[in-house]
């Protein structure tokens, strides 16, 4: 009998569609293509020497731990390092508030696993991080969307959404993926207050908070929530589940991230993680600890900021120079992406086919919109390519747009 795999797959896999965009992005792997598509860090500034030295030290001194299974919550010295960093940055928490995950992407999936019943609604920005939608679609959720402007979620729209009793609200207040937009302090406070008023948990996803090139740092939602509750010392017991990652401050290849949340939520995430992978790679956790324990990452982040700041500026200048004036774009103060909006009626996914003929790529914005729309938008990454390549690629893209835009 000819096996019919499709008939065996679970109901929930119906929502796991491979996107047409992913198929297009596969073409960007051709070496001649300049891709502004992925969200990749600049490989030339990976701290190769520090990682190499850490590996040697680990194998010489801690191989019994590094090559062994570990606890699901993570390697304690690394967790403590992250507690110290959070406290230094103004969020009071302790070891029971922290767990390590295999990338923030795993944290998003585990949160789906512990929170979402089929048919539950999640309140999200639109556009929002595609990877979160992919993780949660598999748990058969639906979405309510909140309207935003250049300062973040609009409070009235947020309140309207919260009244509908979503399972949680997902927010990216710093240099959002995909738009690059950050929430002002007022808007952050509003999110915290309103979520508290309606008893809806917040998931705050913050991979880019340390990558600010302009302006001053603004407290995270977790910080504001703990302030609002008067929890300036000890354990965090508020309403926010905060995610961050080593992907953009060390290297994404080690697949290492962390969650800060009230202990009750941490325990439930840990139970879910046991069924997923038992523990995050112990070896990689020791690498992050060895590399980070004496403050190297704070120094390294300064290098990353300098390099990406320059690349962002080069891309912004190139946009001015090469893009038709009917296109608008964001001016992010940090992060990895900016977001361009073409005149209504243009389809960025269709234009991508023309762009690929000219060996340049981006991500069409439609798929970041959980309820559809945004076909006339595109996400551009400025961290991966060097300035010369950015200029060349933006020149190509500008020519494509000038020829095919209507
Ligand atoms: C907003 C957001 N969340 C989560 C992730 C996943 O990060 P990680 O590499 O830690 O899995 C990314 C990666 O780009 C992201 O942009």
What are the low-pLDDT stretches, counting only 5+ consecutive residues below 50? none
Q: How much is the average pLDDT?
A: 96
Order of helices and strands: HHEHHHEHEHEEEHEHEHEEHHHEEHEEEH
Termini separation comes to: 52 Å
The shape is globular
Share of residues in helices: 40-55%
Strand order within the widest sheet?
Answer: 2-10-9-8-7-3-4
Number of beta-strand segments: 15
Cα radius of gyration in angstroms: 21 Å
How many helix segments?
A: 15
Bound molecules: pyridoxal-5'-phosphate
In what range is the share of β-strand residues? 5-15%
* SS-derived structural category: alpha/beta
The main sheet comes to:
7 strands, mixed
Main traits of this protein?
single chain, 406 residues, alpha/beta, seven-stranded mixed beta sheet, four-stranded antiparallel beta sheet, 13% strand, globular
What's the SSE blueprint?
Layout: H1 5-8, H2 20-26, E1 34-35, H3 48-61, H4 63-66, H5 76-88, E2 98-101, H6 103-115, E3 121-125, H7 130-137, E4 142-146, E5 148-149, E6 152-153, H8 155-163, E7 169-171, H9 185-198, E8 202-205, H10 221-228, E9 240-245, E10 257-260, H11 263-277, H12 282-292, H13 296-322, E11 328-329, E12 337-341, H14 348-357, E13 360-361, E14 363-364, E15 377-381, H15 387-404
Parallel strand pairs: 1-13, 3-4, 3-7, 7-8, 8-9
Antiparallel strand pairs: 2-10, 5-6, 9-10, 11-12, 12-15, 14-15
Bound molecules: pyridoxal-5'-phosphate.
């Amino acid at each position: 009998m000819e096996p019919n795999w499709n008939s065996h797959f679970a109901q929930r896999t119906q929502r796991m569609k491979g996107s047409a965009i992913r198929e297009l992005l596969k073409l960007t792997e051709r070496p001649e293509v300049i891709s502004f598509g992925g969200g990749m860090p600049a490989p030339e500034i990976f701290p190769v020497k520090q990682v190499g030295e850490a590996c040697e030290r680990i194998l010489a001194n801690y191989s019994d731990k590094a090559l062994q299974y570990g606890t699901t919550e993570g390697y304690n010295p690394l967790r403590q390092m992250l507690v110290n960093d959070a406290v230094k940055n103004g969020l009071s928490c302790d070891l029971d508030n922290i767990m390590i995950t295999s990338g923030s992407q795993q944290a998003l999936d585990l949160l789906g696993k512990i929170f979402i019943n089929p048919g539950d609604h999640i309140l999200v920005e639109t556009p929002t991080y595609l990877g979160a939608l992919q993780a949660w679609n598999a748990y058969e959720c639906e979405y309510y969307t909140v309207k935003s402007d250049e300062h973040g979620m609009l409070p009235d729209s947020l309140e309207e959404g919260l009244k509908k009793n979503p399972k949680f609200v997902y927010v990216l207040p710093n240099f959002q993926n995909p738009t690059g937009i950050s929430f002002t302090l007022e808007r952050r406070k509003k999110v915290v207050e309103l979520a508290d008023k309606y008893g809806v948990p917040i998931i705050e996803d913050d991979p880019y908070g340390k990558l600010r090139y302009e302006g001053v740092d603004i407290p995270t939602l977790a910080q504001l929530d703990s302030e609002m509750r008067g929890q300036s010392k000890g354990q965090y017991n508020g309403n926010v589940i905060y995610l961050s990652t080593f992907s953009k401050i060390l290297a994404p290849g080690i697949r290492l991230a962390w969650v800060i949340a009230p202990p009750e939520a941490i325990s439930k995430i840990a139970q879910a993680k046991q069924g997923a992978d038992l523990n995050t790679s112990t070896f990689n956790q020791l690498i992050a600890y060895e590399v980070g324990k004496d403050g190297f990452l704070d120094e390294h982040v300064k290098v990353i900021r300098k390099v990406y700041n320059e690349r962002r500026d080069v891309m912004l200048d190139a946009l001015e120079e090469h893009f038709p004036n009917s296109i608008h774009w964001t001016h992010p103060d940090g992060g990895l992406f900016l977001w361009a909006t073409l005149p209504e009626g243009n389809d960025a996914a269709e234009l991508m086919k023309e762009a690929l003929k000219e060996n340049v790529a981006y991500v069409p914005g439609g798929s970041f919109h959980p309820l559809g729309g945004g076909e006339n938008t595109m996400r551009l990454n400025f961290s991966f390519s060097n300035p010369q390549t950015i200029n060349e690629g933006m020149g190509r893209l500008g020519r494509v747009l000038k020829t095919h835009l209507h």
